[in-house]
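ingest -> fold -> write
write: protein_1
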Amino acid sequence: MREVRSRFGMSAARVRSPKDLKRQRRLRSHSCWDHLLIAPLWPKYGVNLGTLLRTCDAVGACLAVPKLPWVPDALAHGNTLKRRTCVHWTGHDPVRWLIDQKQRDNTTIVGVELADESIRLGDLPAARNRTIAVLGHERNGIPPDAIEHLDLVVEIPMLGTGASLNVAVAGSLVLYRLAGLI
């Protein structure tokens, strides 16, 4: 570790080296627990899928995506860790997939959307059972026929002028919260 002096008069922080971090973390990537999934079911940009795949590795989650023609290439390109990752293929009908998932025992489906009945991200509890976080289309959000299959809707408060965050940023924030890491 190397010391970093604070310019604010606080005690010096110790910066951990990559070797230190490796010793403190798990020895190998997680196996697919199927406990926490992020599901961008209406993807628009491949780069966002790659970012979400990286976040999945960081929090021990899996990615559920439709097998559109361009998605496998986007995931391969976005997998900067260059090792096998946990990906579930949902098929071509996202609403049908949601219905099937909801029928599984002890599964909570959380939608990330601006809605009257949404809770704030800070009030979202960590996942205690199998949880799927559903992300909508970059522009149109989660379609109305899918909203009715959600157990909970969460929104990310914003102070700026934009209406929402992109799918990768929103999904990463929600994953960290559901994983209990923030």
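write: protein_2
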Amino acid sequence: MDRALYLAMSGGTQVMNAQGIHANNLANVATTGFRADFEQARSMQVNGDYYPSRVYAMTENPGTRMERGVMIETGRDMDVAIQGDGFIAAMDATGQEVYTRAGDLQLTSAGQLVTGTGLPVLGSAGPVFLPPLDALHVGSDGTISFIPQGGDATQTTSIGRIKLVNTDGENLTKGNDGLLRTKNGLPLDEDNNIKLISGFLEGSNVNAVEEMTEIMELARRFEMNIKVMDSVRQNATASAKVLER
């Protein structure tokens, strides 16, 4: 009886963890460049200085879905989307190089090029800073061109390139902040074959219908575990009454 209660309890806990993964995916269905997380459950044996007679359920996140999202036309010069595979390199709060598909670029008051969430965008030589300007354009190869403040189209100047990288999805891991990092912690080399398209953003690759279906299925599993625990309680109560007689 105690085994049944433990299995139902651990199963319910892991179902809640799985719900968290799918709920996070669904919450980011409209987040630019978001990559959905996979979820799977498997049995895990309890090992120790005794006979391994207990097995519990474990939910894990085995990876991230790397399929491309839909292209959304915005017409904004500082919005860029990657054509095909690849990532834009940025820098997180700790100074580590991270990777994203979100190309909603912004300029700070200090002239620094950042992502929509405020992360510094990296160029070939580090973070990108721009002087006062009237217009900015990002080329298909990541080259940043601008018209100086008070200038005209004949004074268009190039100032480096956005660092674009590419690697197999298995070499990357996604953190709680939604950003991708290399598993070995080392930065990736720049890839000159990656192309950008200006005036577009890549949407999330989350399938809302699929996520809702999984959430409803997990809710039924959680209810089943609760019913098992309730049955164990009822059986324990009935057994106690028999012993009292």
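write: annotation protein_2
The first strand starts at residue 40 and ends at 45.
The chain has two domains: 2-65+206-244, 71-202.
pipeline exit 0
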